[in-house]
Design brief:
It holds the Pfam family Peptidase_M28. Keywords: Aminopeptidase, Hydrolase, Metal-binding, Protease, Signal, Zinc. It comes from Massilia forsythiae. By secondary structure, the chain is α/β, with parallel strands linked by helices. The chain has two domains: 312 residues, Aminopeptidase (3-Layer(aba) Sandwich); 203 residues, Glucose Oxidase, domain 1 (3-Layer(bba) Sandwich), CATH 3.50.30.30. It contains 14 helices and 24 strands. The strands form five sheets. The chain has a 16-stranded mixed β-sheet that branches. Strands 1-2 form a two-stranded antiparallel ribbon. Helix 10 links the parallel strand 22 and strand 23.
Length: 563
């Protein structure tokens, strides 16, 4: 008979239901597995709580953050883990402070386009999605700014590629395509369908800032962006955040925005240009920038700029033999908070799948590690903030690690897991080659689960989860993805569910907990992730990237610290 203790948390105005934490557990998974049981009921309960309206969409620097951080810390406490965050009076607390710039548009966004004959307004959130300026400016105002089409907006010397050809963009707005030049044809100088960092929207904003442009208008198209306009609108018209920078203008132009494809096409037509023909020309390295002659844009809006402090939540299961070596499990606790209403008038972006599932996974793994024998290496449980604002919590941790990255064995990130039944496969974000993936693939065979490469590498998933800041620093890191070959219904059912979620729920208020979710697939997958992490924690092995990986050199630079 298993003994239990109750993990309860009561806020001043909100009582959180208790979760039974077992002191011992039976086995799960294959007959040969020795992994302890992951409780699907715990996963469901954590998601239900974190995605409830009471947590207000878990926006950073809101009452929802305070409730979320308190809930996670309380669950870690009840599990029996140690605080693993910042040192306070010589003792570690549960959190790591993450200073962020907070930027919010105040009042109306007035945007209009003039084509020499007439002027018409562009509606914020409908035809254009203007982000709050992250330069520190209190207002943005300009009149009749010229528009220049710069293709995919890529400068890649190693590929002998330059979309700019020396064009002067000062005082001008650059119109740029999303993704890479290879996306449409699946072949070319950028490796085919798989997105490089040049295709990511963050790169395009950064590159245009480096070139001194007034701003960037990214043309939205669903296929190359990998999500619909609703996601763009909901992610870009609310509060923006960034890490605190010494020179924010070096990373951000005054104007950062997305524009609807049909709206962009109309602007090109007003300038006597064919959008589709120019888009085709942009796939070649011979492309040259084209000004939309006679077409200009004007805008005016106010910005509230502040510096705030958000929190990463950090727990530690200390190692018995090598406590100064670390395996990290991570997941982001934040979502979009309260934003624009949907068709039902719902303004709370609950973020059940994205990413209450990842936090629930983190909490349940923490409970398992706490009740199992002490690992030889330390295991860190890291719930990061502001992923939805650009991986900012993980970016800050990677730049200011609580535990040395040179002594970090690897990172296993969990983001937007599927809360349904088991699949016959699993995937990771992107198709990076590294020892962690090789080990997990071998481990999964015990459950008769196979690895399926990211079916949509063109979506740039590798650059969109919290393992990426660690990868840039050389730390072997993967972001686990649930499989789509479901035991019940096969690939057809799994793909249909993924497509429906992306179209109807991703970054929308309807991403809410559902009673029909079994969490059986998540529980099985977490058995595998526990087994992988436990092997890493009990070994002396230091996994690495493949020999041809762009991240291997950074890892090798710290090799001496691991001897």
């Amino acid at each position: 008979m298993r003994k239990t203790r109750l993990a309860c948390l009561v806020f001043a105005a909100h009582a959180v239901p208790c979760i039974a934490v077992h002191a011992a557990a039976g086995q799960a998974g294959p007959a040969t597995s020795t992994t302890p049981r992951i409780e699907a009921s715990h996963l469901s309960q954590d998601v239900k709580v974190l995605a409830s309206d009471a947590f207000e969409g878990r926006g950073p620097n809101t009452p929802g953050e305070a409730k979320t951080v308190a809930y996670i810390a309380e669950q870690f406490t009840q599990a029996g883990l140690k605080p693993g965050g910042d040192l306070v009076d010589g003792k570690r607390g549960w959190t790591q402070d993450v200073p962020l710039g907070r930027f919010e548009i105040k009042g109306p966004v007035e945007v209009s386009v003039t084509d020499g004959k007439s002027s018409r307004a562009l509606a914020q959130g409908e035809q254009i999605a203007v982000r709050a300026a992250m330069t520190g400016a209190r207002s943005v105002e300009f009149r009749d700014a010229p528009l220049v089409f710069v293709g995919y907006g890529v400068t890649a010397p190693e590929r002998k590629w330059d979309d700019f050809k020396g064009v002067d963009l000062k005082g001008k707005l650059a119109v740029v395509l999303i993704n890479d030049p290879d996306f449409e044809t699946g072949k070319g100088d950028f490796g085919g369908k798989a997105m490089t960092y040049y295709g990511r929207w963050t790169y395009k904003f950064e590159e245009l800032a480096r070139r001194g442009a007034l701003g960037t208008l990214i043309v939205h198209e669903t296929a190359p962006a990998s999500y619909g306009w609703a996601t763009v609108k909901n992610s870009n018209t609310n509060v923006m955040y960034d890490i605190v920078r010494k020179d924010p203008a070096a990373a951000h132009a005054p104007v950062e925005a997305w524009i609807q494809r049909d709206t962009a096409q109309a602007l090109f037509k007003s300038a006597g240009l064919d959008f589709d023909k120019l888009k085709a020309q942009a796939r070649a390295r011979t492309f040259k920038p084209v000004e939309l002659k006679g077409v200009s844009l004007s805008a005016r809006y106010a910005v509230d700029a502040q510096t705030i402090t958000s929190k990463n939540v950090v727990a530690l299961r200390e190692g018995s033999e090598h406590p100064d070596q670390y395996v990290i499990y991570s997941g982001h606790w934040d979502h979009l908070g309260i934003g624009l209403p949907d068709a039902r008038g719902d303004r709370i972006y609950n973020g059940a799948v994205d990413n209450a599932t990842g936090v629930a996974a983190l909490l349940e793994l923490a409970r398992v590690y706490a009740r199992e024998p002490q690992p030889k290496r330390s295991v860190v449980f890291l719930a990061v903030t502001a992923e939805e604002k650009g991986l900012l919590g993980s970016e800050y941790y990677a730049a200011n690690p609580v535990y040395p990255l040179a002594k970090t064995v690897g990172v296993i990130n969990m983001d937007a897991l599927t809360p349904y039944g088991p699949a016959r496969d699993f995937s990771i974000s992107g198709n990076a080659r590294l020892d962690l993936l090789t080990q997990l693939t071998a481990k999964a065979k015990a459950w008769k689960v196979r690895y399926t490469p990211d079916p949509r590498p063109e979506a740039g998933g590798f650059f969109r989860s919290d393992h990426f800041p660690f990868a840039k620093q050389g730390v072997p890191a993967i972001s686990f993805r649930s499989g789509i070959d479901w035991e019940q219904g096969g690939v057809a059912a799994g793909k249909a569910n993924a497509d429906k979620y992306t179209a109807d729920h991703y970054h929308q208020p309807s991403d809410e907990w559902q009673a029909k979710w079994t969490f059986a697939g998540m529980a099985r997958d977490l058995d595998m992730l526990y087994s992988l992490g436990r092997d890493l924690a009990d070994s002396k092995v230091w996994p690495n990237w493949s020999a041809d990986s762009e991240f291997r050199a950074a890892r090798e630079r710290s090799a001496a610290e691991r001897k």
